[in-house]
Design a protein that fits this description.
The protein has about 100 residues and is mostly helical. It has helices at about 5-35, 40-70, 75-100.
Length: about 100
């Protein structure tokens, strides 16, 4: 929805890259801090399995959805709905737990 100006693309790439870099570090360190170093590989495998399955199946699923509907409006609508649902689940599960810690 935004015109692809070169400076906007650069800003996006920098912010996206920084976010990925931080997530790479956190994804590796946080489970060891929370669950300990014993069985680190098995814990990481169990935590990453749903993400890998979703990443592998999403292109096929969205392609099939596009083929059935004939346009991208359903694909975009589903993507937005999943993002909103994810934010709501985060708010319901994490925010009450944070209030209890304080």
């Amino acid at each position: 929805f935004v015109r692809p100006e070169p400076w906007l693309v650069t800003v996006f790439a920098l912010i996206y890259g920084a976010g990925n870099g931080i997530m790479t570090i956190v994804r590796a360190v946080l489970p060891a801090e929370i669950f300990g170093r014993l069985d680190y590989g098995a814990i990481q495998g169990m935590m990453n399995a749903p993400t890998m399955i979703a990443r592998a199946s999403a292109p096929f699923a969205f392609g099939a959805l596009w083929a059935v509907s004939g346009n991208y409006s359903l694909v975009i609508g589903l993507s937005i709905a999943m993002a909103v649902a994810s934010a709501l689940v985060f708010a319901v599960l994490v925010l009450p737990a944070r209030k209890e810690e304080v």
